[in-house]
Request: fold
Amino acid sequence: MTNLNSRLAERLKQIRAERGWSLQQLAEASGISRSTLSRVENGEVSPTAETLGALSTCYRMTISQLLAPIEAPFAPLVRKGEQSQWQDADNGFSRRVVSPPSGGLSAEVVRCDLDAYQDISYAAPSLPGHEHHLLMLSGRLTVNTSGEEYLLEAGDCLRYQLYGPSRFRTGSDAASYLIVLV
Amino acid sequence: MTNLNSRLAERLKQIRAERGWSLQQLAEASGISRSTLSRVENGEVSPTAETLGALSTCYRMTISQLLAPIEAPFAPLVRKGEQSQWQDADNGFSRRVVSPPSGGLSAEVVRCDLDAYQDISYAAPSLPGHEHHLLMLSGRLTVNTSGEEYLLEAGDCLRYQLYGPSRFRTGSDAASYLIVLV
DNA sequence: AAGTGAATTCCCGTATATGAGATTAATTTC
DNA sequence: GAAATTAATCTCATATACGGGAATTCACTT
Reply:
């Protein structure tokens, strides 16, 4: 995994260069010594999660934002578990895959129409971590995911990454919404 | 930063529990010893980036996906009223960034409303290769990109990757559409 | 070119993350 | 219940990440 270290090194060098900081300044801001910073930025060592946390904090970003550009895209062969879900639509619920992923594209758009007084739950996905953008077109919808509950109205946009079970339900109003799956 | 280690520990424990793996199985799949895995999952040590990489690989996810749930969350809900709107001066064109990119997310959704008899051209993007999904909400729109011309109507979805200049125009009908930028 | 200052890298001692094996705890099987 | 099997933790030795300071390199000035 030396490859990861060298890519991380390049990334960190670039970020520090963008901010115009010296190792000394970064050391004071992060609480990490100059020597460690030098070795990390030269790919000689693999920093600990704590070190990564300190760096991302003083750069005002999350570790994910720090690492996302240097990670290999994950395997695209991932939607078997989802497709079975697409089929079990009840009566008050219709889904249409507006823009299926194909040919190397990485996003798909699904339009969903849910009647009033519907309640739909999904089990945790087999391959978690997909990024979702839920855009309300009309109506009202209550969404539970990641232990949080959101009441959405037309025009709202809810973004989340799907790691566990989720639940969608309507009250007296029907709901139409788009889900952008990345 | 012990807090980070303990949250990471919980996260890793949960993932392994979901898959029903033992430490022994995870050790063989990841190349990390059982003892190290035990200490990491108990928050006693801070794993190196290499260790995180090995774990995320054998769990079939990126490090970002591994860490995202335990990091300070970005605002996941963007209300309609909070979405920044761009009124392109005098012309009958308004854009609203429905879902701005942040927190390591890789897609953004823009809603565009174009009046009748408008003609808008874009130069080649500075960062080419972005994947676009254009979803027509209502009206009619003529799009030129990659040397092709498309006439879109409500419900249509055009997918393309933007490498060169592009042109959007309406005839007697106004157009509303979404652009999903990946 | 040489000097001055800053920034970075190298060297060493220390702290800690890791691996291999032994010990303990939990579960199953008879 | 006891033995057997598996899973998790603990012990110790090693590898390596880290901090402090010295040495080097780099940039700029005169």
About this structure: The domain at 80-181 of chain A is CATH 2.60.120.10 (Jelly Rolls). The helical segments of chain A are 2-19, 23-30, 34-41, 49-58, 63-67, 80-87. Chain A has two domains: 2-70, 80-181. Residues 96 and 111 of chain A are 5 Å apart (CA to CA).
